[in-house]
């Protein structure tokens, strides 16, 4: 924001220019001063803004003592003749100096031309003298006074320094702010040669650039000057015009002196901006910059889309971008979590089932749920606090299980794997699952062949133990009547939840976690409806 000055309001410069040319020279037995070689009125005829230009004469063709009479025309192509038949009375060519009389007369020993009624004698040459008559004007100087104003900020200044040395001359390195310029230096800065340009003249631009920072803490407002040539120095170069000075002879006849002057017109071009802090501009531009960030993001997104449809569409980069950008939201019925006793992770099944859940392909859950890691966890987080010193004791051994009610399974001997059922389905790996036509119920506790989880001690203690389940129920409701006829249904549902918390680590997955067929039927057989 600060680098591009987006925190500032902007105003265009308004200016006025005054020039003063100084210098005097002596040539052709004549003194030329400012009144002779500067012609301000010519600027008004050739430039829309006369006050921003000045003209300095560098070369001249003078035709003296002209009177209104008949004389031979200057010998240009259409004026040359051999007889009166070549001249038409009353006609005038665009290049002619007067009106033809219809006579063909001698101009000099070489040419005959048509006679004209004009100011005679006519100008004798069309080519300017070389070297230039006023070539010494290279050493003339010009003082440029430039007053500027920024109306929006009500600020005015001028190009003359506060401490001004009248004897200084502009130099880009030594005196860059001096408003007095040597004409030869101006032409040199424009990469031209004064000796060549002074012959036919030309047009030079003097540029004054104002780039002002009007904030008090970073104030900077000084002009920078630049120079370059405006007319083409290859195609019809130069700048010239004619004017005349008139006199009255003693007899009352009018006489004049015709001047064709060549010179350099200097156009002073002022431009620039002023800047000042504005809180509204700052807020507006910050908002615009923020919107550009959105466009950048959109541009990157379009680029990624183009890449994705190119030959590199299968690249890992595109896959990562799509994975980070899009998240597929599935129907909850199509999202299932399964846990195998012979695998350390939980598997997520997202695809609609076209085969048994046991054979469905899924993805590993990245953050593994926290499962029970020791016997002292005592079933669930909900029942941990109920197993305090007064009521609970270390996990019961085979000796203490004798005192449990008749529903408690004996744990004196390590549980053995029972024989596999002859009707065991093909998708079962533990031999304890029951056949079912529903794909989402066709799930075993194992991924590979092996012992069923229902035969483990921890399944008996954490899931099926009547003692454990009753403690959890009493933890939730201390006044629960354990002799109620509906207590079996509550213990069965709690056993399902115990299994989910044990194998999946959270009750949050209760609606999406799938209990294996062998475990589900074991719980149903233990706590029948």
TrEMBL record:
UniProt-listed InterPro entries: P2RX7_C, P2X7_purinoceptor, P2X_extracellular_dom_sf, P2X_purnocptor, P2X_receptor
Annotated compartments: Cell membrane; Membrane
Claim: Cell membrane is one of the keywords in the record: yes
GO molecular function annotation: ATP binding; extracellularly ATP-gated monoatomic cation channel activity; purinergic nucleotide receptor activity
Known catalytic reactions: Na(+)(in) = Na(+)(out); K(+)(in) = K(+)(out); Ca(2+)(in) = Ca(2+)(out)
Membrane topology of the entry: Multi-pass membrane protein
Keyword Glycoprotein belongs to the record: yes
Region called Disordered, residue ranges: 385-408
Entry's Gene Ontology BP terms: bleb assembly; calcium ion transmembrane transport; membrane depolarization; organophosphate ester transport; pore complex assembly; positive regulation of cellular component organization; positive regulation of interleukin-1 beta production; regulation of transport
Pfam families: P2RX7_C (PF20478), P2X_receptor (PF00864)
Chief location of this protein within or outside the cell: membrane
Biased composition range(s): Basic and acidic residues: 393-408
Record key words, sorted: ADP-ribosylation, Cell membrane, Disulfide bond, Glycoprotein, Ion channel, Ion transport, Ligand-gated ion channel, Lipoprotein, Membrane, Palmitate, Phosphoprotein, Receptor, Transmembrane, Transmembrane helix, Transport
Coiled-coil segments: none
Limits of the P2X purinoreceptor 7 intracellular domain: 337-528
One Gene Ontology cellular component annotation held by this UniProt entry: postsynapse
Protein's job: Receptor for ATP that acts as a ligand-gated ion channel.
Family: Belongs to the P2X receptor family.
Protein name: P2X purinoceptor
Organism per entry: Dromas ardeola
């Amino acid at each position: 924001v600060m680098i591009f000055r987006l925190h500032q309001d902007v105003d265009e410069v308004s200016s006025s220019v005054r020039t003063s040319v100084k210098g005097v020279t002596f040539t052709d037995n004549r003194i030329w001063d400012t009144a002779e070689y500067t012609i301000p009125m010519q600027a008004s005829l050739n430039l829309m803004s006369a006050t921003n230009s000045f003209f300095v004469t560098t070369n001249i063709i003078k035709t003296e003592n002209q009177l209104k009479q008949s004389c031979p025309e200057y010998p240009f192509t259409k004026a040359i003749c051999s007889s009166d038949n070549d001249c038409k009375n009353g006609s005038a060519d665009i290049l002619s100096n007067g009106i033809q009389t219809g006579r063909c007369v001698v101009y000099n020993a070489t040419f005959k031309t048509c006679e004209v009624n004009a100011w005679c004698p006519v100008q004798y040459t069309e080519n300017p003298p070389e070297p230039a008559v006023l070539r010494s004007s290279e050493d003339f100087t010009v003082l440029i006074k430039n007053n500027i104003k920024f109306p929006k900020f009500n600020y005015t200044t001028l190009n003359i320094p506060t401490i001004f040395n009248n004897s200084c001359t502009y130099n880009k390195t030594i005196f860059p702010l001096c408003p007095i310029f040597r004409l030869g230096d101006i032409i040199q800065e424009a990469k031209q040669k004064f000796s060549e340009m002074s012959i036919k003249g030309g047009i030079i631009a003097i540029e004054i650039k104002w780039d002002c920072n009007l904030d008090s803490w970073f104030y900077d407002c000084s002009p920078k000057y630049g120079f370059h040539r405006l007319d083409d120095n290859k195609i019809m170069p130069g700048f010239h015009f004619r004017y005349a000075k008139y006199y009255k002879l003693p007899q009352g006849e009018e006489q004049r002196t015709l001047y064709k002057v060549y010179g350099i017109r200097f156009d002073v071009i002022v431009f620039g901006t002023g800047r000042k802090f504005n809180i509204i501009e700052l807020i507006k531009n910050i908002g615009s910059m923020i919107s550009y960030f959105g466009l950048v993001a959109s541009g990157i997104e379009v680029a990624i889309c183009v890449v994705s449809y190119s030959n590199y569409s299968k690249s890992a980069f595109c896959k990562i971008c799509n994975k980070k950008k899009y998240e597929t939201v599935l129907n909850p019925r199509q999202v299932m979590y399964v846990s195998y006793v012979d695998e350390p992770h939980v598997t997520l099944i997202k695809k609609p089932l076209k085969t048994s859940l046991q054979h469905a392909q899924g993805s590993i859950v990245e953050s593994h749920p926290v499962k029970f890691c020791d016997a002292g966890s005592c079933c669930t987080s909900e029942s941990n606090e109920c197993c305090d010193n007064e009521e609970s004791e270390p996990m019961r051994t085979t000796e203490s299980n004798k005192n449990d009610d008749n529903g408690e399974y004996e744990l004196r001997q390590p549980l053995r794997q029972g024989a596999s059922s002859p009707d065991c389905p093909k998708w079962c790996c533990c031999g304890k699952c029951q056949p079912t036509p529903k794909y989402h119920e066709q799930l075993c506790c194992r991924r590979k062949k092996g012992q069923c989880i229902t035969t483990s001690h921890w399944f008996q203690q954490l899931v099926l133990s009547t003692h454990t389940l009753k403690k959890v129920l009493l933890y939730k409701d201390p006044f629960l009547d354990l002799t109620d006829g509906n207590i079996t249904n509550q213990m069965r549902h709690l056993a399902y939840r115990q299994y989910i918390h044990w194998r999946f680590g959270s009750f949050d997955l209760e609606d999406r976690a799938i209990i294996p067929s062998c475990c589900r039927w074991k719980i149903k057989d233990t706590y029948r409806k």
